[in-house]
């Protein structure tokens, strides 16, 4: 099982094993293009059903949970039955250079999810040519989100989130969007009681440079999946399982191709809560500084060094009004003797042995 960070070589090894298990071709046979730095981008075709589904993951290199969920799906016993009426085209990592370096952007520092129209990057061109040639009936756009998202009131974190993107500025409820909403509604209905926190809904403000918006504008139902964070799931193992379940529900919903009752679908979709950027990783309350009592917002910065993913606690704000909660909340009124043990470095790294705030991996 791949852990949260893996090198591209580790990924290729794992993919090779999967291909053997699935009776598929070799790695070189499924190369569909190269990244900026010359790494292979792979496309796997599975199933012969009549509904064509295009899935891509890790277009943002530092979002690996959905790629791991795909691997889990490949290995699951129910995988073949999910494919009864489906032909799948899966690009497990669209941004290999970003995945290696654990960056959102590609090697040219471009966010591939803002390159849908300009197509300046080879990775964007690969995705577009697969979209044009394969002509999918559905698209699943797989991502991970930072630890900052929660319910609007800040009471609960958003462990997973979804979006049925708009296809135009008017946010028209097209047949394509209704189908996307229906998939999201099914996931929400079946997993809402299983998440720690909420299932969130992204804003549907239209941006044609975003890949999902572009594909919806072409009348192809597209669903944005976002693996989020809850509690101390920094390995993202829990959310990987939820993404695996979400994918299974999505494939099942697509196969059933239920009749759409427009107003019911829209109402159910709109009942999924919006999110706010209300969370930080650690919120330290009642810190006694020379300028008085303070609330410290601490966020882990993720860095890969020599193949290891480190979480570095950084002070990102003091008394911030937009920060409503933390995945961990420490009230120093409860531990007054630890106040002096909390060190804020010049580079804003923060540490306290007593409070267990340190770099970890
Ligand atoms: Zn993303």
TrEMBL record:
Family according to the record: Belongs to the peptidase M14 family.
GO cellular component: extracellular space
Originating organism: Nonlabens xylanidelens
Protein name (record): Zinc carboxypeptidase
Gene Ontology terms, MF aspect: metallocarboxypeptidase activity; zinc ion binding
Taxon lineage: Bacteria, Pseudomonadati, Bacteroidota, Flavobacteriia, Flavobacteriales
Keyword entries, A-Z: Carboxypeptidase, Hydrolase, Metalloprotease, Protease, Zinc
UniProt-listed GO biological process terms: proteolysis
Domain (Peptidase M14): residue spans on this chain: 4-276
Essential cofactor(s): Zn(2+)
Coiled coil segments of this chain: none
């Amino acid at each position: 099982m791949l852990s949260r960070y893996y090198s591209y070589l580790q990924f290729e090894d794992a993919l090779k094993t999967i291909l053997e298990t699935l009776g598929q071709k070799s790695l070189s046979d499924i190369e569909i293009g190269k990244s900026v730095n010359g790494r292979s981008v792979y496309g796997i075709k599975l199933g012969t059903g009549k509904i064509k589904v295009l899935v891509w993951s890790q277009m943002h290199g530092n979002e690996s949970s959905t790629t791991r969920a795909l691997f889990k799906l490949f290995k699951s016993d129910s995988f073949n039955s999910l494919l009864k009426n489906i032909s799948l085209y899966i690009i497990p990592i669209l941004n290999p250079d970003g995945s290696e370096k654990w960056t959102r952007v590609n090697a040219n520092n471009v966010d591939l999810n803002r390159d849908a129209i300009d197509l300046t990057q080879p990775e964007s061109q690969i995705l577009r040519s697969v979209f044009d040639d394969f002509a999918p009936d559905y698209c699943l756009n797989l991502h991970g989100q930072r630890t900052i998202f929660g319910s609007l009131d800040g009471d609960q974190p958003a462990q997973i989130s979804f979006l049925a993107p708009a296809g135009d500025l008017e946010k028209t409820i097209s047949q394509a969007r209704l189908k996307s909403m229906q998939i999201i509604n099914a996931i929400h209905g079946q997993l809402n009681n299983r998440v720690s926190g909420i299932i969130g809904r992204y804003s549907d403000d239209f941006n044609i440079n975003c890949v999902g918006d572009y594909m919806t504008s072409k009348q192809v139902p597209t669903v944005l999946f976002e693996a989020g964070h809850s509690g101390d799931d920094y390995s993202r193992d829990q959310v990987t399982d939820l993404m695996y379940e979400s994918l299974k529900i999505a494939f099942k919903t697509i196969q059933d191709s239920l009749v759409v009752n427009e107003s019911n679908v829209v109402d159910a979709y709109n009942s999924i809560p919006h999110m706010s950027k209300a969370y930080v990783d650690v919120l330290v309350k009642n810190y006694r500084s020379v300028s008085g009592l303070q609330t410290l917002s601490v966020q882990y910065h993720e860095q890969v060094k020599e193949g290891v993913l480190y979480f570095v606690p950084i002070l990102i704000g003091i008394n911030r009004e937009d920060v409503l909660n933390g995945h961990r909340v420490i009230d120093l009124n409860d531990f007054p003797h630890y106040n002096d043990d909390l060190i804020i470095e010049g580079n804003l790294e923060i540490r306290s042995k007593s409070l267990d705030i340190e770099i970890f991996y």
